[in-house]
C-alpha cells in the first residue's frame, strides 16, 4: 500500500542533518513530566503567586511613566532583601481606607524621600532636605504648595509622576 509509505518530502526532512537533533522529533518530548515535574510546577506556581502579582493601571497619577490601561507585573520579593530606594516605584494599600470597606484600593507611586528627610513642594519644585530635585520623569511641575514635612522613621514619602492629578503623600 503506497499511501502508508513515507513521502519523499518527509524523508528529506528527516535526513536533513540540522533537523535530526531537534528534541521535538521524539514523541517523548510531549510526555507528561511525571511526579517530579508536577512538584516543580507547583513550586514555581507558589513562588509566582507569593512574590509577584499583575496590576492594572486605573488612573493617570503616574503619567507619563505608566498610562491608564497599562498592565504591570509587581515584584514583591526584593524588599525582603533590601530597603526601598529613592525613585523606586512601589505599590501599597490605601492607608486611609478602613478594613471591611469592600475591595481595598492599591496605590502605585514613586518614592521621593525616605525616613529622616524633610520634604517641601514650593515654586513648582520638589525640595528634599532643602535641595531642589531635578525630575525629568514628571508630567509637569506641581502647581500646589506643601509645607515642610518630616518623614518619620519606618515611612517613605511618595508622589505620583503626574503631580497635579495624584492622591499621594502631599495630602
TrEMBL record:
Q: Which Gene3D superfamilies match?
A: Umud Fragment, subunit A
Note the superkingdom of the native organism.
Eukaryota
Keyword DNA repair in record: no
Q: Which residues form the Peptidase S26 domain?
A: 39-170
The UniProt keyword set, sorted, is: Hydrolase, Protease
Q: Which residues form a coiled coil?
A: none
Pfam families in the cross-refs? Peptidase_S26
Alphabetized SUPFAM superfamilies for the sequence = LexA/Signal peptidase
UniProt xrefs under InterPro entries: LexA/Signal_pep-like_sf (IPR036286), Pept_S26A_signal_pept_1 (IPR000223), Pept_S26A_signal_pept_1_CS (IPR019758), Pept_S26A_signal_pept_1_Ser-AS (IPR019756), Peptidase_S26 (IPR019533)
Name of the protein described by the UniProt record:
Chloroplast processing peptidase isoform X3
> Which organism's genome codes for this protein?
Ziziphus jujuba
**Gene behind this protein:** LOC107421032
Amino acid at each position: 500500500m503506497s499511501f502508508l509509505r513515507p513521502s519523499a518530502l518527509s524523508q528529506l526532512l528527516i535526513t536533513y542533518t540540522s533537523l535530526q537533533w531537534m528534541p521535538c522529533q521524539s514523541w517523548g518530548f510531549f510526555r507528561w513530566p511525571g511526579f517530579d515535574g508536577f512538584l516543580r510546577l507547583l513550586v514555581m506556581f507558589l513562588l509566582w503567586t507569593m512574590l509577584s502579582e499583575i496590576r492594572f493601571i486605573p488612573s493617570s497619577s503616574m503619567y507619563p511613566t505608566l498610562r491608564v490601561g497599562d498592565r504591570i507585573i509587581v515584584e514583591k520579593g526584593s524588599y525582603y532583601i533590601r530597603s526601598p530606594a529613592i525613585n523606586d516605584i512601589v505599590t501599597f494599600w490605601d492607608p486611609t481606607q478602613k478594613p471591611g470597606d469592600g475591595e481595598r484600593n492599591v496605590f502605585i507611586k514613586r518614592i521621593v524621600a525616605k525616613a529622616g528627610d524633610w520634604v517641601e513642594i514650593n515654586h513648582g519644585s520638589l525640595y528634599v532636605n532643602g535641595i531642589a530635585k531635578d525630575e525629568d520623569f514628571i508630567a509637569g511641575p506641581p502647581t500646589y504648595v506643601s509645607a515642610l514635612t518630616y518623614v518619620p522613621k519606618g515611612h517613605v514619602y511618595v508622589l505620583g509622576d503626574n503631580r497635579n492629578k495624584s492622591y499621594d503623600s502631599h495630602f
